[in-house]
Amino acid sequence: MAFLRAYRFPLILLAAIALGSVIGFILGPKSAVLKPLGDIFLNLMFVIVVPLVFVTISSSIANMSSLKRLGKIVGWMLLIFVVTGIISSLLTLGAVKMFNPAEGVNITLEEPEGQEEITLGEQLVQTVTAPDFRDLLSKERMLALILMAALFGIAVSQAGEKGEMVARGLSSLSEVLIKLVGIILWYAPVGLGAYFAALVGEFGPQLVGSYARAVAVYYPVALLYFAVFFTLYAFLAGGGRGVRRFWSAIPSPAVTALATGSSVATIPTNLTAAAKLGVKKDVRDVVIPLGATIHMDGSCISAILKISFLFGLFNIPFEGIDTYLTAILIAVLSGVVMSGVTGGGFIGEMLIVTMYGFPAEALPILAVIGTLVDPPATMVNASGDTVASMLVSRFTEGKDWMKNAWKEKA
Length: 410
Fold this sequence. Notes:
Elements: H1 2-27, H2 35-62, H3 67-98, H4 120-128, H5 133-136, H6 142-158, H7 161-184, H8 188-207, H9 212-249, H10 251-260, H11 267-277, H12 281-294, H13 297-313, H14 321-337, H15 344-356, H16 363-372, H17 374-397, H18 401-409
């Protein structure tokens, strides 16, 4: 009974997704008629996420006692993002060496559609800045929004007494927005069930086609990383207590990420989960939004899979230290660095093609794989932000951070 009370909402979400999947398999492409119900939920989440991110980040920084603490939080956060990206890449490297994802696959190469040429420098400018204030208020400009929120929070903090009222107002508004998220989530079972029905109806046939083996490799690896390594990270962050509380808090954001395929849409539920874990406000309000943009362990796993798949498709042996190190470098760049750049997924795929000398016709193949593995990849990406906030708390607060947080709650 206690289990049902603790996991009631995630179980409802899972039941809705399972029902949607069955409907999608039965109706096939006709299930697209349900997609608007899913789009309504996604739109609601995307609308709330922009003000939520701006307010939570600026509020946390404005209320920090020292900006030195902000530097400490960001420093540990970036280190953790890179290390977990390397670990997920190494795990996948071992998996694809055991099970070649392209074995027996025969795919006809097609010319990719024309892509607009844009330099990396231009991409970076578009990612960290916006040409107009109205352009800043978009989920497509998330890094620029986060940067401006941080600068605004610093300005409020430096304003001294005159900024105190603004800081209090931001803190209150943050609480109101969290309550609004709770209201929107009441619609989640309907929205996620409908969205998954449309997704399975559209891509179901490809799951049993040429890409089945790649999917069959990715899904178990992603689930293994999620179950085993996130448990290990939670243990490092808070011992046995950390593991128990992580698994009590993570189902809702994990299921939300799995169904929506969006780390950004999962920010609200991730913030709630981190708060439930006892992660301090200034830590969770910095790590969770930034993690949704630049922390992608699931994408690191995907990058290694894509590289191995192309090697097998072109009958090239996937072996050698240089090949492995290059693969890990590309995976980390794709999952931690490029993921924050507009069109970062495409840039990561271009890196794979150009650094190994594959023909441009390979790009559509990588795009299809990316689409098919997106649900579990996003689940790993988003859930990794929550466990990363726990690790950041461990290194900034000390080993008793969780015990102290629960004492404060009591």
